[in-house]
TrEMBL record:
Lineage: Bacteria, Bacillati, Actinomycetota, Actinomycetes, Pseudonocardiales
Residue ranges of every copy of the Lumazine-binding domain listed in the record: 1-96, 97-193
Stated name of the protein: Riboflavin synthase
Species, as recorded: Lentzea sokolovensis
PANTHER family referenced in this protein's UniProt entry, alphabetically: RIBOFLAVIN SYNTHASE (PTHR21098:SF12), RIBOFLAVIN SYNTHASE ALPHA CHAIN (PTHR21098)
Stored PROSITE patterns: LUMAZINE_BIND
Pathway assigned in UniProt: Cofactor biosynthesis; riboflavin biosynthesis; riboflavin from 2-hydroxy-3-oxobutyl phosphate and 5-amino-6-(D-ribitylamino)uracil: step 2/2
Length: 206
């Protein structure tokens, strides 16, 4: 589990294509300071398992499902990435509950700059729209954010200077893909409610 509070901006050292998978090496001195084989590190919001740690960098395997659902299929050597270690029991939950299980990708549509903040418009896939609500939580490239406005095909988030400076979201331009993870609580509520809603609908139809 993660909190969506990015610890550092790392960079991709190398990528290797494998059959139905990929292997990436990422440099990040903060997240590798206590990392070991088998640990979890979120890379742009994707939970990856550490295979090897060496010289302030770690290697992770990316499976086909992850490549299909996230933007990691497009990362290249030198790209900057958001990094966060798994949350430790007893620490403050600064963002919200983040699994690191990306639900899909969105596209940066526009950016509106103000003096002390920036509004970013992000395209919302139809399959995820029902889980996103105004003032709710969403994870964008591993960053825990609050939804400002939402429609059927897009939502907006407001980025403070710290987020702009310390994460990839300060560098994303219109047309760029970002990883999206919706609030897991919304998905569980839907799953539990559907049988009851169907039963009610069936009773009303009789």
């Amino acid at each position: 589990m993660f909190t969506g509070i990015v610890e550092e901006l790392g960079h991709v050292v190398a990528t290797e294509d494998l059959p139905d998978a990929a292997r990436i090496r990422i440099a990040g001195p903060t997240v590798t300071s206590d990392a070991k084989h088998g640990d979890s590190i979120a890379v742009n919001g994707v939970c990856l398992t550490v295979v090897e740690v060496e010289n302030d960098s770690f290697t992770a395997d990316v499976m086909r499902e992850t490549l299909l659902r996230s933007s990691l299929a497009k990362v290249a050597q030198g790209d900057r990435v958001n990094l966060e270690r798994a949350a430790a029991v007893g620490q403050r939950l600064g963002g919200h509950i983040v699994q690191g299980h990306v639900d899909g990708t969105g596209t940066i549509l526009a950016r509106e700059k103000a003096e002390h903040w920036e509004m970013v418009h992000i395209g919302l896939p139809p399959t995820l729209a029902r889980y996103v609500v105004e003032k709710g939580s969403i994870t964008v490239d591993g960053v825990s954010l609050t939804v400002v406005t939402v429609s059927e095909d897009q939502f907006t988030v407001s980025l403070i200077p710290t987020t702009l400076e310390l994460t990839t979201l300060g560098r994303r331009m219109p047309g760029d893909l970002v990883n999206l993870e919706v609030d897991v609580l919304a998905k569980y509520v839907e799953r539990l409610a559907i049988p009851h809603l169907r039963a009610i609908a069936g009773e009303e139809a009789q």
